Amino acid sequence: MTDGYEMVDVETAELTLSEKSGTRNVDLGEALGCEKMRPRIWFVEPGHERKRYHSHEEQEEFYYVLSGPGRMRIAGETHTIPEGNAVRISPDTRRKTFNDTDREHVWLVVGAPAVEDPGIVHEE
């Protein structure tokens, strides 16, 4: 870390594929050396339905739609999240993102605290 901050160009950052969901993403937490949060940029392709319906033990999550609209299932209800809107979800609330549209959705997703909390998978 330089002088208390780090910076990354998301356009040129390393894009990886999530082992759990198959979602292409940029791990901003790793790129920036985050210690207290886990930020990522998710690129959710049209027709993508592989994210797990899940909750967490400790990790609260913040979702912001960079381009979309985004689609989510939260606590048994399906929501369309307009571009430029944000959602905060408590650890024990069940959630998943998906894309049943013909456009790519791009999300900024931040989990905190930055603990190993792989999630508890639930039936929908």
UniProtKB/TrEMBL annotation:
Membrane-spanning residues: none
UniProt keyword annotations, A-Z: Metal-binding
Keyword Metal-binding: yes
Residue ranges constituting the Cupin type-2 domain according to the UniProt record: 42-110
UniProt-recorded Gene Ontology molecular function terms: metal ion binding
SUPFAM superfamilies for this protein: RmlC-like cupins (SSF51182)
InterPro entries: Cupin_2, GPI/OXD, RmlC-like_jellyroll, RmlC_Cupin_sf
Listed name of the protein: Cupin domain-containing protein
